[in-house]
Amino acid sequence: MNILIVDDDSTNLLILSSILKAEGYTVETASNGSEAVDKFTSGYFELVLMDVMMPVMDGYQATLKIKELSLDRFVPIIFLTAITDEYQLAKCVESGGDDFLTKPYNKVILRSKINAMARIQALYDVVQTQKSKLISLNQQIEDDLDLAKHVYDSILSTTKIDPVIDSKIIPVAGFNGDVILSVKNSYGGYHLMLGDFTGHGLAASFGTIPVADLFYRLTETGFKIADIAVEINNKLNILLPTGYFCAACFISLDENGQKIEILNAGIPDVLLFQENNVLEYPSVHLPLGVVKTSLSKLKFVQCKITSPSRLVVYSDGVIEAKNKEGIMFGEDALKSLFSNNIQVELDDVVKEIDIHRETCSQDDDLTIASVKLPFLTKDKSLVYSRSEVSYEWKLELEFDRDFIRKQQPAMNITSAIMSQNIPDSHRDKIFTIITELYNNSLEHGILGLDSALKSSPEGFSEYYTMREMLLSQLDDAKINISISNKLHDSGGILIIEQKDSGNGFDYTGLYSQPSNNIYSGRGIILVRSLCKTLTYSEKGTRVIAEYVWNYD
Amino acid sequence: MCGIMTSLNLELFEELRILLNDNFSYLIDTYISDTTKRVEQLNAAIEIENWDEVRTIAHVMKSSSANIGALELSDISQQIEHDSVYNTRGVKIIYARLRAELSAVIVCLNKNR
Amino acid sequence: MSLKGNLSQDKSTLTIHIDGRFDFNLHKDFRELYSSYNSDAKIKEYIIDLSETKYMDSSALGMLLLLREYAGGDSGNIHITGCNSEITEILEISNFDRLFKIDK
Question: Which of A25, A198, A450, A504 is an S-S bond match for A541, by CB 3.0 to 4.6 Å?
């Protein structure tokens, strides 16, 4: 330990430095306050022993300066004086002194005082280290939060909320445990979902990301709302810890906004306002994520819209907003707002809730969405505007063993094709062609299944049992599909070429009449009748189909 | 050994001898020359009744004398430091005692170095 | 995707609803469904309700033919109802309109 001794008396300096050197400390001396400050500035000291009365600069002033110079660390200063009055004590403390030592010096007392200071110093160092660790941890958490917020916002901002669906989301914190998702589906209608995760803030918002991802992806792939609800529920069942869940509502609207399907799983009554009455759709299912579910357990309610209506869904934050007296806003107040004016703006609804809450702060995320039904009919010619005209392209795909064993690619391929602005009326035919060609290659070419098996009910079952078994044992296989789109005046032609790694099959019969086995061979007949041409070659391992499509 | 036993705390003094070792003689020289100088300054300050100066010098003598083991001298210095504030008339009388005690201490130190 | 059977009060008509995709994944369920009413020999008519069916593949055609055979072949009475235009087209291409009564 480096010690600085400050005293104007040489005898004192000599004695004290001898004592400290004998104890093993490194010592430097200064004969007044000013010299002490200079030495402290240029050297490194961990303890200062300071006389009080000195010429040029006294011990109080020197102590003030030294403490100022060492703000970032703890340098104990021990005054070399006996406290004789309160005034002196106050002055010592005021200038920053940490202890006192009276003359004559006693080695034992001196040693114990220095050790005590060293312990305080070590403690101070620990606190300092922890403090800087805390500061950097805090910074890291803030950085992480910024990043998470960015990801969260960018995922949810892809929320393709359509103008027909109006919504207001007011979170308590930057992160929201409520989520509202809506997207146009591949049947021309809409899928809408409102979710309210347990709690609010970051913890609650975690679940919204996989939910949004599944919701959009499955809708795009052509899943129906009930299938999406099952998938999301089962995903959350795996993801969320016990005690956490997501109250939610799924709604599908047809293209005209006349047929709606509703599943309420744990949120307040979904309300359908009509001219003179209001229909309520209460929760009929456990919130999502609590238990695994299946399609048959989901009770979607169907409803036909015959007069101008307003569908309203909202999280419990809306009706449970409390004022000072603890009184909730309530479902009745919400109902009367819409009953009095079916066209009421959601902004005005939120204002009413704010008025009710007065000065009370918001304690839960608040979300409300509404749709005016039925949709106003659009001019059909607008549907295919210039920007939506198709162009020429080519898509090449290769499926390997692992994919073939587990997946059915037809839905995704069809979605990819349809996303290139081919009118929706062709969707099912294209899907059929892709499915049948793929299954034919797989079942006959690669798995070598004989369709003659399908001639009896038992054989039919056996055929599919074998299909499953052979698939699971599949060793090495590959299916390549290439699809290109060539344009003509009123539409285009899709050229679908497929090649598989199997041993082929006897396709000669397909060109004649349907075989005498009426249960099989129908797939290819179907494809042939849908396509302009269908040509098998290379022992049946290669096939080219041409499908003509037109703008509506 | 020292003729005036009360002038020097021999126990403390012997401790210092061991502690300072080669520097012990130097310590005694420094103390004697510093203190002799201070007593002269003290005398001058009393003559012109500069009590602040009196107090400052007495304060330093009090601590250095205590440190070297001259406890009686330290006590007398403390008395002067006190009287310079509260009883200036008593200072001159005690000053005579201080001179006598210092002479005794010097003799004792030189004998024991 | 789901499959539901509905027996009329007089137990003479079995209606089968198919929701979603009607493809080879259903082959087992479909067969088990109609054979589970086996004990009731009274069934005279089968109605296949496809109003909630989105797609249908060629194996579904096979399953319909198996049901036809189960119901007594040419003497069986099977109605296919609620077909959307795409499904109707598939049924017509396969000449199923000669084997089944098809309502659009």
Answer: A504
Lowest mean pLDDT, pick from A12-21, A373-382, B58-67: A373-382
Q: What is the CATH code for A386-550?
A: 3.30.565.10
pLDDT tens-digit series, residues A479-489: 999 999 988 87
- A102 → chain B, closest CA residue: B63
Is the domain A158-378 a CATH 3.90.1150.10 member?
Answer: no
Does residue A379 have a pLDDT over 50? no
| Mean pLDDT of all residues in A255-276 | 90
Domains identified in chain B, total number: 1
Its CATH architecture, for the domain C2-102, is 2-Layer Sandwich (3.30)
Chains in contact with C via at least 3 Cβ–Cβ pairs below 8 Å: A
The 8-class DSSP code of residue C83 comes to -
Going by C-alpha positions, the residue among A235, A240, A203 that lies closest to residue A218 is A235
Is B31 within 8 Å of A103 when comparing Cβ atoms? Answer: no
CATH of the domain at B103: 1.20.120.160
Give the CA count within 13 Å in the CB-facing half-sphere of A204: 20
Tell me whether A221 touches chain C (CB under 8 Å).
Answer: no
- Flag if A9 and B64 touch (Cβ within 8 Å): yes
Q: pTM (2 decimals)?
A: 0.44
Q: What is the DSSP string of A379-428?
A: PHHHHT-GGG----EEEEEEEEHHHHHH---HHHHHHHHHTTT--GGGHH
Which residues in chain A have their CB less than 8 angstroms from residue B17's CB?
none
